[in-house]
Amino acid sequence: MAKSSKGKGSNKQRGAHSSKPSSGHTSTHRHVESKHGANKSGKNFPVKLAMWDFDQCDPKRCSGKKLERLGIIKSLRVGQKFQGIVVSPNGKSVVCPNDRNIVEENGAAVVECSWARLDEVPFNKIGGRNERLLPYLVAANQVNYGRPWRLNCVEALAACFAIVGRLDLATELLSHFSWGLQFLELNKELLEVYQRCTDADSIKKAEDAWLEQIEKEAQERKARNPGDDLWLTGNVNHKKGHGVTQNENKDEAEVGSTWEQGENSEYESDESAADGEEAYHGPVKYDSLGNEITLSESSDPEYSDSEELLEEPDFLGDNSFSNDSDIRDVTVGLSKVAIKGDVTEQ
Ligand SMILES: C[S@@+](CC[C@H](N)C(=O)[O-])C[C@H]1O[C@@H](n2cnc3c(N)ncnc32)[C@H](O)[C@@H]1O
């Protein structure tokens, strides 16, 4: 990794596959938790929030670190388990409205790590009794905008709250991010569908029905426009066969299989790019056809360091898109968002 900053409560791995807990969580760094997740900084959140932070991401772009800076999430060490809902790639069932009591009484936690380095996370030493996957939802964060399933930590927590019927908590959490409420907007219809469910089975059925529907709509659009329409089919010349494109292969779009499907060789072999660091060579914007417009730093008032990107994201000028990537289309409900296909893994 090109750059790393050791955060409080860090579980940074010493070796690529080490599962040894960090000693970084010293008593001086430990958050003092009181009822309902209030911590030392005095800030409060109505339910307990926690994360295991493996320090694999750019701290300036990391939503978990930002929540920690805001003082509303507690860092857990490897070896510690969490009693509430653990929203995790290691989950076996999905978050559902029946989880509401667990969330309200014991809170929710996430695993702050890089998507590209999930195999380094000692899942057997973290987690808890209530580990859950999230059903199909689309990211709105500036790193993986438009990408299904790969939510960042704040989106994952908010999704969990929204599904169990606590939209108020989801809204409160996301309001700390300038792009945050867009996540709820982008997934509004689907979140409402999930909220009407009860258990994990009903969520799975609703998810399957949704995926079938968006695939059907995509097929119908293709049938109506058999030509090579970039906005409908993506740039086939550049297709690399990675990531999950709902419209292309629904079978690959199963919850649980997405973690593997999304790993692409290029970014995995280039950690700095995977973490959205060195992949950026200056401000880039795209015209209405997806052509890249190169801007000089001085000509772009929005160009700044990545801290500002976290605060004031510009989806079109986001450095998460590599220069030679394909255009990938993602269907979000009835609206389709054409986006650059290769996204960073953070
Ligand atoms: C891999 S980390 C990436 C975090 C990112 N660096 C950030 O800035 O927040 C995202 C975490 O959110 C949770 N998460 C996101 N999408 C999920 C999904 N579809 N199912 C289960 N957990 C998910 C998991 O805890 C996962 O480890």
UniProtKB/TrEMBL annotation:
EC nos: 2.5.1.157
Region annotated Disordered, chain positions: 1-42, 218-326
Database matches in InterPro entries: RNaseL-inhib-like_metal-bd_dom, Tsr3-like, Tsr3_C
Cellular compartment(s): Cytoplasm; Nucleus
GO cellular component: cytoplasm; nucleus
Comp. bias (Basic residues): 1-17
Keywords from the UniProt entry: Cytoplasm, Nucleus, Ribosome biogenesis, rRNA processing, S-adenosyl-L-methionine, Transferase
Pfam family, one: Fer4_RLI
Annotated RNase L inhibitor RLI-like possible metal-binding domain residues: 47-81
Compositional bias ranges of the Acidic residues kind: 263-277, 299-315
Function: Aminocarboxypropyltransferase that catalyzes the aminocarboxypropyl transfer on pseudouridine at position 1191 (Psi1191) in 18S rRNA. It constitutes the last step in biosynthesis of the hypermodified N1-methyl-N3-(3-amino-3-carboxypropyl) pseudouridine (m1acp3-Psi) conserved in eukaryotic 18S rRNA.
Protein name: 18S rRNA aminocarboxypropyltransferase
Gene: TSR3
